[in-house]
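Predict structure. Chain length: 657.
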Amino acid sequence: MIVLLALLVLLSIAPANAQDQDLRWPLAMSPALSSTFGETRATAFHAGLDLKTWGKTGYAVHAAADGWIERARMSPWGFGRVIYLRMNDGRIAVYAHLDSFFTPVQQKIRAEQQRLGHYSVQLWFEKGKVPVQRSDVIGFTGETGGGPPHLHFELRDAANVPMNPLLHAFKVADTEAPTMRRLLIVPRGAGSLADGDHAPVVVPVRWHAATQRFVAARSVTVFGRFGIGVELFDTANAADNKMAAYRQALIVDGREVFSSRLHRVPLGDKHQVALDRWRQDGFIFANLFQRPGNRLAFYESDGNAGWLFAGGQDLGPGEHEIEVAASDVSGNESRATLTLQVASSYAQALASSAPVENAPAVELVAYERFAVLKLNSTVESQLGEPRVTAGGVPLTLQARPGGHTALISYANLIAEDSQHLQVEVRFGAGSDADTTLTLTTQLVRPGLSQDLAYDQGRMVLHFDAGSAYEQLVPQVSSAPPEAAPGVRATDLGYTIEPQTISFDKWARISFAVPEGKDPSKLGVYVSDGLGGWVFIGNQFEEQRISARARAFGTFALLEDVAPPTVSTLLPRSKMWIDERRPLLRARVVDRGSGFGKELDLEIELNGRKLIHIYDPEADVVEARPDHPLADGEYVWTVRARDQAGNTTEVSDGFGLR
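Prediction complete.
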């Protein structure tokens, strides 16, 4: 029976392996990667491989296997020019950022562009309409859509789920193990601490030649529930680009308790990169724990989803060793070790915190479902220990190095209909050090559609029933914006925390239109963290301007009244040329709301609209006449309209003889 079962298993996997062995590498050059599967992008996983073309375009792209072209698309954004090959076994190969397609597809795309009158088109083809055989040239590499010259390649299963191509015959030479750089300790919950604080702790690691592993620079004292993360990169032989590893594992006192492997990710779950990664102090860590709502199929665990409990049965008081193992698809592995000192109590863990230089006299730090009040010992030494209340309820102060701390549990102190909670710190009669702080207290509940109003309705957070992964209490504080290039400030700006929160289904943020403002010029912007603003939307409805948001941050209602700038580049003004189908090129820049769609830009030649191509990275729009031009003088016009409706029109001339 056992032999028969083993034979059935072998038969079930043999066809797939045989198919994989026959897949062709997309380029006729030595395989070299600049990015791999599962890497972090701004809002999604990278779902394929980026093949290096060494700064050049125009290399032939070859079909992986027999099949047919199922789809081709042209767009200024995203994948740029992309082609989808449906292989005879049902799987899909995706080739993106192409310079051009092979002739059968190129001709059909061109005809569709002529029919519609614009560049962006998408065509679907029935089986047999555009057949291809393994190794056929189906396009040429480029840099359309975004990034430097390269080929983005994806392998998807028959259900259109991206898979890691490196697990399916698309191999690269790799004898180099991943490099560990930092470990992360993330406390979870009011009763959890790392080095005496509720904030995540980052610990650098360094290579230790004697033990052939990375070793943490110091130990960390923990208590309560916490998770571990790792910041690392992997390289391969042909290039030194920093890429993701394939597998990470968490080992506690010699026992593996959690692992993650980047093998496949559904397109509809790519945004859950926000749950699989943790951004801290400018670094991106891979989580070795599952946050609530994480449905990715990456993980194996001992039943605790990677979360550890310091002070419990398995991690009792004393010293414990944490080990993180990381490996690539080729099996090269690195390990990093960290010593944990598990405290015997919350008070003992709190005592391990280090005093912070130049800390505020009073600080209130908000988390998902609780807040922490910190008092600096400098002011306490002058005025004595204060009386602290939250919503009129006395809080218990606990000693810590450098002062005291108090926990504020939203669940215990927030009334059902409340929107604010006053936290008062009183040192004595009329003391200048007396402080009143405010927490916002509206609760977001998973499974409910909610509209939470703040600042008397000037700003509203709108949650779909599927937005929140878990219960949380957003902390909203006023953050009046300052003007920036291309936009004017209104008085409506807010910081919404914790900024570690993300959403499954999109949430929305809306602002009331200020009196006297033109709604068409207003938009919702999010801070880029560098002093600038990024436009995210301007839907107008019922005297409100709104936009979608996938995470908390700092948002503002800004006004864009500045038109785009347009300057012609080619042909040079009033120049006589002999090129019968000249390239018409202009630079188009908008520092406010920007251009949201291809139709925001136009190029006309002697009053006739041309099909133009927009390059958003280069801020260039260009077009070429469909047919050779006759001798004579010509006038061409560029129009640019931003998302606030501001329009610029520039005309220039050239001649042919």
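Summary: The chain has five domains: 22-167, 179-347, 378-440, 450-559, 565-656.
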